[in-house]
Design a protein that fits this description.
80 residues; mainly alpha; 4 helices
Length: 80
Amino acid sequence: MDSTRTFFKEERDPYYIKGFQKGVENGKNRERARASAEFAERLILGTNHTDEIIAILAGVTIAFVKAKRHSVAKKNRIKK
């Protein structure tokens, strides 16, 4: 009797492939979110744009920009 290891290959399993693709997609989404957060922070520090304009430019929500602005201000107070 053959071993199941020789018969069953994870790489050919449709559930394995689907899970792998989902993992890759999640990784890309995290990278995009990180880039958007960094861009929003740079806009907060480098411009006088309103929260609404920064949210549109960075592709994030206004609430996120307000929270980011608060954390940047807090970070700057600690540095000084």
